[in-house]
Every structure is written in C-alpha cells, then in structure tokens.
Write a sequence for this structure.
C-alpha cells in the first residue's frame, strides 16, 4: 500500500450532509445531519442549523481541521529548554 493511499484511508472525510428534523430541545428550522468518517469504521455524527451550502462548508472546515490535527501539521511546536544559568559562585 502506498503512503498516499494509507494517508487517505486514515483521513477524516465527509460522508453526508442531509436535511433532518430539528433535534429535541432546539428551536428553528432548516436543520441538517452530517456524518464524518475516519478510517472506514469510526464516524462522527452531528446536527447543524442553516442553509445546506453553509452547513456543508462548515463541516468541510471541521474535516480539514481534524485532518491537520491528526497529521500533526498544526499547532505543533518543538520546544527545547535552555539550560538554567548557574548563579556565580562566591569563591574567596
């Protein structure tokens, strides 16, 4: 298996964004249910209110951020501590 296909298999991706009824305890209309999958077996499901195009764009942004986080491309800083300075010794 190539590195690219392995990375693709281990990526988050949008499976669907579909209109749905409003979730219990919420108000308003124009709700959508989305499904994001990872690696074929795990999935994230959620609901979001708004126009289909807006919700789809928001879910795609979530997927982009999840993939960046999963691959370590964002927010990773390699910190190297500086040696502590020793106080001058009082040699007489």
């Amino acid at each position: 298996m190539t590195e690219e296909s392995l990375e693709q298999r281990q990526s988050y991706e949008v499976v669907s964004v579909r209109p749905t009824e409003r979730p219990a305890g919420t108000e308003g209309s124009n709700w959508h249910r989305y499904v994001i999958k990872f690696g074929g077996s795990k999935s994230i499901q959620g609901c979001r209110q708004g126009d289909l195009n807006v919700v789809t764009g928001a879910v795609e942004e979530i997927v982009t951020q999840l993939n960046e986080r999963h691959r370590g491309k964002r927010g990773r800083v390699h910190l190297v501590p500086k040696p502590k300075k020793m106080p001058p010794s009082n040699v007489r």
